[in-house]
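From the methods appendix. Each design record in this collection lists the tokenized structure first, followed by the designed amino acid sequence. Records were kept in a plain field format so they could be parsed without special tools. The example shown here is representative of the layout used throughout.

RECORD:
FOLD TOKENS (135 positions):
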């Protein structure tokens, strides 16, 4: 079907306004996986003998009808990341790097505001320390 010169183009139906399109919900476990991956990226390279970081999240959906819809976060995520670090090292700087990276990645990939990232250092590993208990 071609249009002749001067003929009107077919009408495009009106688009549904963003606030009326529906609702997107991202599961907490997906946000936790994003946060754990971001923590791994922040402390990379991860030594083989360290357990990878894991995360838990508490996601609160954005209240409907509050503020502009376009480009606003879908929800607010409070994140807790647990990890092991090598010692000696700058623990504060590594925790700050994890906070920054988790905030950035969750904000970018899940379009969520992240007002709080708690970094819990579960264990410090000395160089050459083996896994598990030693007697």
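DESIGN:
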């Amino acid at each position: 079907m071609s249009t002749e010169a001067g003929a009107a183009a077919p009408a495009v139906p009106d688009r549904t306004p963003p606030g009326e399109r529906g609702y997107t919900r991202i599961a907490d476990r997906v946000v936790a996986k994003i946060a754990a991956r971001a923590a791994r990226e922040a402390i990379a390279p991860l030594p083989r003998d360290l357990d990878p970081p894991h995360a838990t999240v508490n996601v609160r959906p954005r209240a409907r009808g509050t503020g502009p819809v376009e480009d606003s976060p879908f929800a607010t995520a409070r994140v807790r990341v647990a990890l092991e670090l090598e010692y000696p090292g700058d623990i504060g700087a590594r925790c700050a790097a994890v906070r920054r990276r988790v905030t950035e990645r969750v904000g970018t990939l899940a379009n969520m505001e992240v007002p709080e990232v708690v970094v819990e250092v579960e264990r410090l590993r000395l160089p050459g320390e083996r896994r598990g208990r030693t007697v």
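APPENDIX NOTE: The helical segments are 28-42, 91-110.
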